[in-house]
Design goal:
Layout: E1 5-9, H1 16-30, E2 41-45, H2 51-58, E3 64-67, H3 84-89, E4 94-97, H4 100-105, H5 110-122, E5 126-131, H6 135-139, H7 143-158, H8 160-164, E6 167-170, H9 184-198, E7 206-210, H10 215-222, E8 229-232, H11 239-248
Parallel strand pairs: 1-2, 1-8, 2-3, 3-4, 4-5, 5-6, 6-7, 7-8
The chain binds 1,3-dihydroxyacetonephosphate (13P).
1,3-dihydroxyacetonephosphate (13P) binds at residues 9, 99, 171, 176-177, 210-213, 231-235.
C-alpha cells in the first residue's frame, strides 16, 4: 500500500505574514489526530525565503516542507543559487525538480533536470520529478513519448533504482493554472505508462497528478489506481480548499 502524498506548491506568492498565516491554519486543521494515524502525507513548498519560517510554523505537526528548486552544484561561486545542503539545513525533506515553469521559463533542459535530481539525492532530499506534455504535444499524440523521455533522461543519469525511490509528478502543461484538468482517465493513462516504465522497482513509487487540482475534482483523480496523491498550485494557497484536497487522498 502506497501512502498518498499531497503537496502544495505556493510558487512565487505571498509574504512573511501570509506564509505564516497559511501554515498556521493548516497546522490547526491537521493537528486533530496523532501523526501516526494519518494516512496521507502533506508537504508544503513555500518560496525559499519563507522555508525556515514555514518549517518553524509546522514543527511537530507532521507536515513536511520542501523547496521549489535547487542548484545542480554543491557549492561555489553561483550567485543567487541555493544548494541541496542549504535546503536540508533549512529543514527541507523534499524538493521539486523539473517543474514545467522551470523548464519553459528558465530554460532547464532534461539534462539539467537530471543533474538537479542527482544533487537533491546527494544532499539527502527526496526529489519530486515533474514531467508533462504541452497541449500541442498532446494533440499530436506525443504525450507518453514526451513524458517517458523526460523520465528516461533522469534514469540515464542516476539509474532506475534512484528514480524509483523519489516521487514523480505528472503535470500536463496545458492543465497548470488554466482551470482545465486532465480527466481521471487521461491522467490514469499517463500514470500507468509511467508505472510501466519504472517496472518492478517502481511498484511502490509515489506518482502524483498536478494541474488545476481542486477539492471538487480531487477524489476522482486520487481514486485512480496509479495516482498516489497530488501536486497542487493555486488551490494550495487557500487553507480550507487545500485541506479538503488532502482529505480526498485519505
Ligand atoms: P495549479 O494547481 O495552479 O494548476 O498548478 C499546478 C502546479 O503547477 C503545481 O506544481
Amino acid at each position: 500500500m502506497i501512502k498518498p502524498l499531497v503537496a502544495g506548491n505556493w510558487k512565487m506568492h505571498g509574504n512573511t505574514e501570509t506564509a505564516s498565516h497559511l501554515a498556521a491554519q493548516l497546522v490547526a486543521q491537521w493537528s486533530d489526530r496523532p501523526v501516526a494515524e494519518r494516512s496521507v502525507e502533506m508537504v508544503l513548498f513555500p518560496p525559499s525565503v519563507h522555508l525556515s519560517l514555514v518549517k518553524g510554523a509546522v514543527a511537530g505537526s507532521g507536515i513536511a516542507v520542501g523547496a521549489q528548486n535547487l542548484s545542480q552544484h554543491g557549492s561555489g561561486a553561483y550567485t543567487g543559487e541555493i544548494s541541496g545542503d542549504m535546503l536540508v539545513d533549512q529543514g527541507c525533506d523534499y524538493v521539486l525538480v523539473g517543474h514545467s515553469e522551470r523548464r519553459d521559463l528558465f530554460g532547464e533542459s532534461s539534462a539539467t533536470v537530471a543533474e538537479k535530481f542527482k544533487a537533491a539525492q546527494s544532499s539527502g532530499l527526496i526529489p519530486i520529478l515533474c514531467v508533462g506534455e504541452t497541449l500541442r504535444q498532446r494533440q499530436q499524440e506525443q504525450t507518453v513519448a514526451v513524458v517517458t523521455a523526460q523520465i528516461k533522461a533522469v534514469i540515464d543519469c542516476v539509474g532506475m533504482h534512484n528514480v524509483c525511490r523519489a516521487v514523480v509528478a505528472y503535470e500536463p502543461v496545458w492543465a497548470i493554472g488554466t482551470g482545465e484538468t486532465a480527466s481521471p482517465e487521461q491522467a490514469q493513462q499517463v500514470h500507468r505508462a509511467i508505472r510501466n516504465q519504472l517496472g518492478e522497482v517502481g511498484l511502490s513509487t509515489r506518482l502524483l497528478y498536478g494541474g488545476s487540482v481542486k477539492a471538487s475534482n480531487a477524489a476522482e483523480l486520487f481514486g485512480q489506481p496509479d495516482i498516489n496523491g497530488g501536486l497542487v498550485g493555486g488551490a494550495s494557497l487557500e487553507a480550507i480548499e487545500f485541506f479538503n484536497i488532502v482529505k480526498r487522498a485519505e
